[in-house]
Amino acid sequence: MSASSDVGYHAQRQARWHYGEIAFWLIVLACGFAFPNRYLIMTDILRLALFTMSLDLILGYAGIVSLGHAAFFGVGAYAAGLLALHGIVNEPTLALIVAGLAAMVLGFATSFLVIRGVDLTRLMVTLGIALLLEALAERFSNITGGTDGLQGIEMQPIFGVIPFDMFGKAGFFYSLTVLFLLFLFARRVVHSPFGLSLRAIKNNPLRAAAIGIPVNRRLIAIYTLAAFYAGIAGALFTQTTAIASLDVFAFERSADLMLVLVIGGTGYLYGGLIGAVVFRMLQELFSTITPQYWQFWIGLVLVVIVLIGRQRLHRWVLYVPNLIIKQVAGRKAVVAVPESDA
Amino acid sequence: MTAILTNLFDGVAYGMLLFVLACGLAVTLGLMNFVNLAHGAFAMAGGYVCMVLVNRMGWPFFAALPLAFVSAAAIGIVLERTLYRHLYARSHLDQVLFTIGLTFMSVAAVDYIQGSSRVFINLPAALQGQFDLFGVGIGRYRLMIIVICGLLTIALQMVLAKTRFGSRLRAAVDDPRAASGLGINVPQVFAFTFAFGCGLAGLGGALSAEILGLDPYFPLKFMIYFLIVVTVGGSSSITGPFLASLLLGIGDVAGKYYVPKMGPFVIYTMMIVILIWRPNGLFGRTAAR
């Protein structure tokens, strides 16, 4: 077997659906039926998962460290809010796509700034863009409602048939559907030759360029796509909570997002989903212990994760599952986290 | 005309303050290539130490300032030896995560100990109010800041350029391997520099309580300002960050005075434009490592 077909074989094997993945999604769906009085928090987790998946696309696959991903979330959130508030696009799914596209346009425009320079410049530019948008949203308070946020948003029924109910059931299944569809697309993208070229860029941009990958174009493409995803997540936020306020742009949101992704692990798409669940549970736990100071413990978690080392941590977590798989199926570890960051 | 001069004066004072706050970061971020987003936490620590000493224990303001420096430096050296030094070789992502974590912890901890409201340091009467100099309103406190920070800047430049320690530091930064081969204790030099930078931040934090406002969210609010100073100023010398701080201070004060509605808009736009135009900073060296 030649080396190139070997690579293709492995790439194809990676791209195949595993039983574990199908089980994962079935469990998520089952949660929707099993906890009918937890819809609000579960919707929140789904939203966060989608947002994190968006960061994973650029950080985990392309190696772009962003400290201002909330910018796109915020644009999506305000776009969806304004569309619904002024009755421009009434149908939620259509509004969702329009909001996503709005964020995507911003993502495309700013991607040219982000691909320039090294890590540090990227950090600064992404952070600066998010802060700039926050300042803008505050400045044009006649449009955005300023610090009060957009109020009185009333969502129309989905497809004109399914209304949003006060228990959040429709919101949950709506979010789940959106998340799943976008996940399918992201999965397709990262396993395509395009996705593989992104990993090559992340591992070594110089070599990637040397084998003929157009580095800048690929980075622009993935950054734009990630902005679209973040915009959708923001729009979901507005649609399911009927609020859009200035804090959608907040630095804390971008920082928390990083924590979520780091908890879940980068570069295999499920990191966002798992991280979102763990993060929200941690947050609940900490805020029951100390309602006002939960941020301290979140910070501590970050520090500890980094000090132990993310790779080592993931090895520990996966140790038991892999042991079971080895015993039962008699093959080498199936669940592995591909890790090599920036 | 006099309003312009007064604004200019305030801007210079503000800029000098930013320089003292951020020049420690210029060393860690610019020279040691460590992304330290928690730099503001050290400034906050210094500010709170000064506040407690002056307000609660009745120390004179000028006696409390050196202690703000010392305490922030002490915290800095402890953290450097125990935590930071393990992260020098790690990826930028790890450094960002770690220092964001530290920042969150410091914010919540100070909130827990001192409460979340803004605190003020009781100033001696000699520093309050302002006087007229050829019709230009000069704030006494701001004048003191300019004097202190100006002297510090000159001293720093002298230390870096003339002393043995300065040349060791420059050698360690230019090529750590060759420097340690020459018998320079590179980790020690870095640790000392880090602590000194934290101390300066602490001093800056104590001085800035009056102008910037001191509350538990200080590290988050001003993080972007410190980063701007360093990234725009570059890291080849301390002149770069110094000029960048002055530019930022004057720009921010003028922006708030003449176009108050645009808020911080001016600063962020300026930063992004400069970074795009010259990714390594206005006065930076040609290649960032």
**Approximately how much beta-strand content do the residues of chain B carry?**
under 5%
Total E-strand runs of chain A: 0
How confident is the prediction overall: mean pLDDT of chain B?
85
**What's the β-strand tally of chain B?**
2
Describe it for me?
- The complex is a heterodimer of chains A (342) and B (289).
- Chain A is mostly helical and 342 residues long.
- Chain A is 74% helix and 0% strand.
- Chain A contains 15 helices and no strands.
- Chain A has helices at residues 3-15, 19-34, 39-61, 70-85, 92-114, 119-139, 141-144, 169-191, 193-203, 205-210, 215-241, 251-264, 270-289, 294-308, 310-329.
- In chain A, helix 3 (39-61) packs parallel to helix 8 (169-191) and helix 3 packs across helix 13.
- Chain A starts with a helix and ends in a 13-residue tail after the last helix.
- The model of chain A is unreliable at 337-342 (pLDDT under 50).
- Chain B is mostly helical.
- Chain B contains 11 helices and 2 strands, in the order H-H-H-H-E-E-H-H-H-H-H-H-H.
- Chain B has helices at 2-31, 39-56, 61-82, 92-114, 140-162, 164-174, 176-181, 186-208, 218-233, 239-258, 265-277, and strands at residues 130-133, 136-139.
- Chain B has a two-stranded antiparallel ribbon with strand order 1-2.
- In chain B, helix 1 packs across helix 10 (239-258) and helix 9 packs across helix 10.
- Chain A binds chain B through residues 59, 65, 67, 113, 116-121, 123-125, 127-129, 131-132, 135-136, 138-139, 251-252, 255, 258-259, 262, 292-296, 298-303, 305-307, 310, 341-342, and chain B through 29, 35, 83, 86-87, 90-94, 96-98, 100-109, 111-112, 220, 223-224, 227-228, 231, 261-265, 268-269, 271-272, 275-276, 279-280, 288.
